[in-house]
Amino acid sequence: MKTLLTQFNWFLKDYWLKRSHFSSWLLLAVLVGLGLAVVAINVHINEWSKTFYDTLTAFEADKLYGLIGEYLIYIAIFVVCAVYRAWLRKLLIIRWRSHLTEQFTGQWLSRRAFYRMSLNDHTDNPDQRIAEDINVFVSRTIELFISLITNLAQLYSFLVILWKLSGTHTFHIFGHSLTVTGYLVWLAVAYTLAGSIITQLVGQKLHRFNYNQQRFEANFRASLLRKHDHAEQIALYGGEAKEQAGLRREFQDIIGNWRKLMNKERDLGFFTTAYDRFSLMLPVLASVPLFMAKAITLGGLMQIRSAFSAVFNSLSWFVFAYSILPEWSASLQRLSQFRQTVEREQKQDKPVLEGRELSFNGLNLYTPARIPVLSNIQGRIRPGAWTRLAGPSGLGKSTLLRTIGGLWSHYDGQWQQSPGSRLLLPQKAYIGNGTLAEALSYPNEPAASDAVLHELLEAVGLGSWKAHLNSALNWAQTLSAGEQQRLAVARALLSRPDYLYLDESTSHLDETAAREVLMLIKQRLPDTTVVMVSHQSSLADIYDEVLDLSRFKAA
Ligand SMILES: Nc1ncnc2c1ncn2[C@@H]1O[C@H](COP(=O)(O)OP(=O)(O)OP(=O)(O)O)[C@@H](O)[C@H]1O
Question: Where do the TM regions start and end (predicted)?
């Protein structure tokens, strides 16, 4: 409980205790005000119903018009308050959610936390945390808070009314007499409590089935998405039948659980529907003794009925709120854990030691599970030269490139680099959505003129795509693997880094094309220090130096 409060406190401080969010406080105050206004109107309507039914029974037709007019005014105010309450609540939700989403995505994407988290299998899915949990947490917090105040006010107002209307009554049961004050209040409390306990008991299994249903639906969706992402490979293998069988199997889980869920809901429905329906008549039946004794009029009976129903609804809300608290606290916990993981990963970001050149002095590399990869690496990379990292597959060449590229933090010992920008081109370039000009300029916005980009495309061998510079195609699907590598080289030429790290970045090109592309880099970026990994042995003359990492293989 204490941790939950501490976690919640962070979210309060982060948004609600900042001066800049004063307008959200105003919004919240208006929302609470509208909720209280709705309660006040309900109280008036409750009093009105007594007068109205008493007027009816007294056949005072001339008074009816005035009463109907009064009712229409109440309804008009009620409608405006209720509609704006829902509208403003949504406005407040989207404000707080925007702030948190900005905050979470910003933190997650800063200091490479997102990259390190992607290396750990056990880290939560960011898509669920950022998209789903923030939404659940924000909506539930606001809904719970506002309805708590409104329901407390409604409960108090109508309990007072019901208490007054019940008066003190003496019941005669089996020869005994029992005098009770406010008996309708006790009846409402007992009826709601009994109903809620039975609903909880019958519906207990529903939670599990609902949870499983969401899980199975998510699995099915993810599976469909995988087919979309790997459409080409599946089509090439002719794996359609196998995939359909897999989808059918996964959908069977949905069907199986759905059946269990609908049966359980049916069982619960028998009780809850009867329970709700009966709650409409119960106060009438319970007031019959007062009515028969002429202690109350028909108007009084109707007033009791509506007051009872208000008390019943408010009490039921507390039970409902209690049942959604676990969902709320689970989203709060998951968000807090995600936030703490991001903070921890950000702290892993190690500052680069500045020196005169790129050099290693007893550098030890590990896997995220702390298994040694390379130990005690020594050496220097000559500024402006081209150095190839050599060694057998799986030795740790890419890991070293990731380290000097600023991605890998699982190391100790020392390495240093002279100040300057760096760019790492992996084997497979990332190409997001957008135009070819945007893909070329990534991660910056296109700043170069079309003429410059046309020339660049021509230079890297993508001249045939010049006409499509401003077309938004699915470039990751459209360009061949080799063309994607050419595009990555074009990006490097555009951004002109001081350090360029090439991790098998020409592996999809034939050796002549690879040589042309590398020579282009040499020619256009003569001062850039290049460190590369390549298995294309015929390119040996391209490098000035070779750093053989085999001797640093971890024991
Ligand atoms: N994210 C990771 N989690 C666990 N182990 C990893 C991770 N990344 C790399 N490794 C391990 O570290 C070792 C070195 O991998 P690395 O990719 O650096 O080798 P490499 O020399 O570049 O190999 P190749 O020439 O085949 O590309 C391998 O045993 C690999 O399994």
Answer: 25-45, 65-87, 144-163, 183-203, 268-292
Q: Would you say how long the chain is, in residues?
A: 555
* Mean per-residue pLDDT of the chain: 91
Mutation test residue for ligand 1: of 117, 365, 371, 373, the one with most atoms within 8 Å of CB:
373
| pLDDT the model gives residue 231 | 87
Lowest mean pLDDT among 140-154, 282-296, 485-499: 282-296
The model's confidence at residue 206, banded by pLDDT at 50, 70 and 90, is: confident
Q: To test the ligand 1 pocket, which listed residue (112, 363, 367) has its Cβ within 8 A of the most ligand atoms?
A: 367
The DSSP result for 88-141, as a single string, is: HHHHHHHHHHHHHHHHHHHHHHGGGHHHHHHH-TTSPPHHIIIIIIHHHHHHHH
Residue 136: band (very low, low, confident or very high) from pLDDT cuts 50, 70, 90: very high
**Residue 387, SS3 per DSSP:** strand
Mean pLDDT value across residues 89-113: 95
Q: Which residues does ligand 1 sit against, CB inside 6 Å?
A: 119, 367-368, 373, 391, 393-399
Ligand 1 atom 30 nearest Cα = 394
Domain that holds residue 158: 2-11+21-203+279-347
Tokens standing for 159?
């309990």
Q: Whose CA is nearest to atom 28 of ligand 1?
A: 394
Question: Is residue 123's pLDDT more than 60?
Answer: no
Model confidence at 458, pLDDT cuts 50, 70, 90, reads very high
The pLDDT value recorded for residue 155 is 95
What is the Cβ-side half-sphere exposure of residue 266, based on CA atoms within 13 angstroms?
A: 6
CATH of residue 38's domain is: 1.20.1560.10
What is the CATH number for 523? 3.40.50.300
Q: Which of 397, 532, 536, 553 is the best mutation target for the ligand 1 pocket, counting ligand atoms within 8 Å of the beta carbon and taking the most?
A: 397
- How far CA 295 is from CA of 105, 165, 225, in Å, comes to 65, 10, 68
DSSP state, residue 21: G
Task: Tell me the ipTM for this assembly.
Answer: 0.96
- Compute the distance between CA of residue 304 and CA of residue 306 in angstroms, rounded to an integer: 6
Q: Indicate the residue among 347, 373, 399 that finishes a domain.
A: 347
Residue 224 half-sphere exposure, CB side, CA atoms within 13 Å? 7
Distance between Cα 337 and ligand 1 center (Å): 28
Total of domains in the chain: 2
Distance 373 CA to ligand 1 centre (A): 8
The structure tokens listed for 217 are 């639906």
- Based on the fold, state whether residues 476 and 432 are members of the same structural domain: yes
Distance from residue 122's CA to the centre of ligand 1 (Å): 19
Rounded mean pLDDT of 313-334? 84
Cβ-based burial of 237 (10 A; exposed 0-12, middle 13-18, buried ≥19): exposed
Whose CA is closest to atom 14 on ligand 1? 396
Predicted confidence (pLDDT) per residue in 67-90, tens digit:
999 999 999 999 999 999 999 999
Sign of CA dihedral 94, 97, 102, 103: positive
Render pLDDT for 516-540 as a digit per residue (tens, 0 to 9).
Answer: 999 999 999 999 999 999 887 778 8
404 and 312, same domain (yes or no): no
